Amino acid sequence: MKEYDLQMAWKLSVLAGQSLKTIQGDAIEIIFPGFGPSALGGPDFTFAKIRINDTLWVGSVEIHLMSSQWYAHKHNVDHKYDNVILHVVWEYDVNVFSPDETAIPCLQVKDYFLASWFEEVDQKIFSSTNIPCGALIHNVSEVVWQSQLEVSLIERVERRVKEIEQLYINCHWNWDEALHRCIARFMGQKINNECMEQIACAVPYRILLKHTSSLPDLEAMLLGQGGFLQQESKDDYTKDLIQRYSFLCHKYGLQKVYNVSMQWQYKGLRPVSFPELRIAQWAYLLHAKGRLMHWALETSVSDLQRESHEIGDYWKNHYRLGHFSPSAVPKNIQWSKIVLINALIPFRIAYQKNKDSLEINRLIDAYEEIIPEKNKVVKLFESFGYHAFSARDTQAMLELYNNYCNYKKCLSCKIGHFILKKEGLL
Question: 131: pLDDT confidence band, cut at 50, 70 and 90?
């Protein structure tokens, strides 16, 4: 059993309706389990309402497997825990006292609740190899499914927005720089995101803006900082880029990112997603748009989705530097959709936060305008009969799978909750 399991059992009021007593012998009635579990530090549940004997208490509830964890986690010296009105534990192994040396009321759950309940939950909904509830998800109503998708979408957007807000701070409160790094990150496919962001950090956006009229200069700085210009030149174009990069490094005092070339991943990528080609597309975007803010904030979502960004002439028959391709490199609008979904819409929401709540709602709804993504997670849910009709669905599916299914957080999920009730476990 994990502490998370006990937290979810408390949140779902599995103990409700039983005649409960504290270790000290006082009668307990759970009026409201509280809000939680908290991920921000402090007690697990806040604003709980618990009747102990004839007194109604409002405060926090802390949950542990063993009562001794109160001291192991140093809650006794943390003032955030001073208002805990009930300590809920699986097993009470030591006495726990408040700062004024009075015993904190404690509920020992194993007196009322069998550990076999968790085993039964495991057997009922953790039996599938793909997703935990795979064997029973076909019983879930469309209303419950859509309700959980809405929760997952909002959680995904909020997480992206928080990342962008932190990026804005890291960029010394410069929205232009933050936007550039955000776009760069999501142009690299998932396996190369970190490397792309390293390049964006290594070449200040203000320097790139000085060279938007020269596509070769932009390619030289970005490819050079990515470690792609360290080998011997295989053709005249690469030789020219190496010379430009050397000159621009000296001019601007750029610190070379020597180790990044060892981190680029190609395995599993189609040629149109190779990092050199993505960097060339990034350079052309800067060349074509100049300052990105107006384009990113003012262009409609439908227009952004239709954009098919050009690349320099060299890259029309090269997927990698020095490797000629006899067939033309196809125009790739897929990366435009990836950047729109993961960077531009969340950036707009972060930028509009605390300014225009209606615009934020419109931006979240804009995911419905974008055609659905194709990936293994979406295919997995489709195999269970749940189809995606827009990026709103696919983004929610990704969040549901990555943050709930992967960690077996079925007790936090509306779908898991529905299945448990249907199976008589709640």
Answer: confident
